[in-house]
Amino acid sequence: MSIAAKKRVFASPASLTDNKFHFCPGCHHGLVHRLAAETIDYYDLSSKAIGVIGVGCGVFLYDYLAIDCCESPHGRAPAVATGIKRSNPDSFVVTYQGDGDLAAIGTSEIIHAANRQESITIIFVNNSVYGMTGGQMAPTTLPGQKTTTTPAGRQPVGDGYPINVAELISTLKGTAFAARVACHSHTHIRTARKAMRRAFQAQIEKRGLGLIELLSACPTNWRMTPQQSVRRLEAEMINTFPLGTYKDF
Amino acid sequence: MTEKQLLKGSVALAQGAIDAGCRYYFGYPITPQNDIPEYLSAALPAVGGVFIQAESELASINMVLGAAASGKMAMTSSSGPGISLMQEGLSYLAGSELPAVVVNITRSGPGLGGIAPTQGDYMQATRGGGHGDYRLIVLAPNSAQEMYDLAGEAFRLAFKYRNPAMILGDAILGQMKEPVMLREALSPPQNSPWALSGAKDRQPRLVKSLYLKDGEMTVHNLKLLDKYKALQEKEVKVEIDCPTRCDLIVVAFGSCSRIARTAVDRACLQGLKVGLVRPISLFPFPEKAVREEAQKAGRVLVVEMNTGQMLEDVKLACNGNSEVYFKSYPGGAVPTPEEIEKEIEVIVGKGGLRHVNSS
Questions:
Q1: Interface predicted TM-score (ipTM) of this complex, two decimals
Q2: What is the CATH number of the domain that holds A90?
Q3: B207–A71: do the CB atoms touch at under 8 Å?
Q4: Do B223 and B250 fall into the same domain?
Q5: How far apart are CA A115 and CA A111, in angstroms?
Q6: Model pTM above 0.95
Q7: Is residue A6 in a domain?
Q8: Which residues in chain B have Cβ-Cβ distances shorter than 8 Å to A84?
Q9: How close does chain A come to B162, measured CA to CA in Å?
Q10: What's the number of domains chain A is made of?
Q11: Residues B320 and B256 reside in one and the same domain
């Protein structure tokens, strides 16, 4: 068989740019970006997709995805996405938000966007800390977890319990799809890819809001190596944040 | 077809927005501006538009931001406390260079305040209001007709300069019914070259306000400054009615200017030489008109329904070259023509200034 006749079985997604990721070693944002790009290509959405980007480490999404993008004020991405989708119903609108953005300052916007049954897709990255601002406590920080603002570890009474977003959003009637997946192994990534497609499919079929929560590592702010981070995600995060599909149309 | 209708100011404004091409409204209820969302909740769907009652003013302004990023004419309306919540979004709209119209039918404040007519949000409106180095385009109607006309003008300026515009009204202007001449309705804007629509057969577009690289933000700030300078050069709106020889000019805007108008007319009937300068655009402020008329008369009386906010712009315009007097009506107090007329008489003398000087 000549080289030319060989079948290409793997390539970078067409809607992922050639820019090098700025993320820290072991961070899963790059992986989530790639999953988003693969799903955009899978449904051939690059010419109608509009990304709405929350504030956090994912804010430079527009450097990596070759789609139209709009920055959003912190937490307001579901409201911005609502404005885009309602004024341009043929577009495909996807937000990219972290746990500080969606689960703290933006709880109101995500709950009411879901409740209005907005046909938008939410990619929600849960790494249990504020990454960009330097590792402060997030609403998803685990009990006992040390962060730069919980030096003695998070005390649920007083500091709050971790908020389980996928389960919470799944209780709203306007939510079409809500699932939690993880990014730390090939098996989990394959599951994540399928869930990402369902979260997109919900919007394509105009069923309502689709949310995929991705458990991911932040080695820098966890003060761990990438390998230790993967072990922590598996051993600690999944206990608090059970993987699964909580609503599927 | 153009026609004359008897309309409440708030309804005139809402219909003015539709006739300018606005099809998207996002808002949250607050007194005294509820006539606007109530009217649009029926009128917008009737013309193929979208009305959403949002969960908060934070959500409202960010829905406006999303529709504006799509190149659409979008608006919201609120009052004092709600406008405060929108300041974050207004800053992002200005930073991202997006056009939108925000209506403030003011409440007195600070805090929950009261719902009576007031002009206490002048500073918040004209100084940007949110974080960062930016300005809103601010228009101040004084009649139901102007509520209608300036809604369209606010959209025209917002799109021309890609900057959010605010209409600053109050409960008098919102509730007062007057005849309004409707104009020929315009079509919504199409395909702005900066709008997000999906990167079909073109490079991806980006709407953003984050500039982290060395010097980038300075360049952006100077670009915005150029817009504000262009607005100051080309878009000042002011009504000037001053006799050739004038002893005093009264400066007032919005509903207060209607009362000042009556007071000035009465003073003139008495033989006093008094003029009226009414800023219609509060940003850009009619600095040149105020300076020139103040210099000619030598004396300025500012009347505002607050504790002295436009007063500062008048003083900046006069730059110490004219005597500036101020009559304050804060917290929902509304002047009567007689009170302003009396103030005029106190400044120029019952028989007029030249009469006083010559006696």
A1: 0.96
A2: 3.40.50.970
A3: yes
A4: no
A5: 6
A6: yes
A7: no
A8: 66-67, 69-70, 196
A9: 16
A10: 1
A11: yes
Number of structural domains in chain B: 2
Q: Does A46 touch chain B (CB under 8 A)?
A: yes
What is the extent of the structural domain holding B57? 3-190+205-234
pLDDT at position B247 over 70: yes
Is B200's CB within 8 Å of A69's CB? Answer: no
CATH number, residue B279: 3.40.50.920
Q: Is A80 on the interface with B (CB under 8 A)?
A: yes
For A23-63, what is each residue's pLDDT tens digit?
999 999 999 999 999 999 999 999 999 999 999 999 999 99
On the question of pLDDT at A201 being above 50, the answer is yes
Three-state SS annotation for A195-246: HHHHHHHHHHCCCCEEEEEEECCCHHHHCCCHHHHHHHHHHHHHHHCCCEEE
**Contact criterion met (CB < 8 Å) for B206 and A68:** yes
Cβ distance B65 to A80 less than 8 Å, yes or no, reads yes
Q: Searching chain B, which residue's CA lies closest to the CA of residue A87?
A: B67
The pLDDT of residue B353: 64
Q: Where are the beta strands (DSSP E) in chain B?
A: 3-8, 24-27, 50-53, 74-78, 101-105, 137-139, 165-169, 177-182, 206-207, 238-241, 248-251, 274-279, 281-283, 299-304, 323-328
Check A84 against B74: CB less than 8 A apart: no
Say whether both B180 and B122 belong to one domain.
yes
B24 touching chain A per CB within 8 A: yes
Shortest Cα distance, chain A CAs vs residue B73, angstroms: 9
Residues B222 and B294 in one domain: no
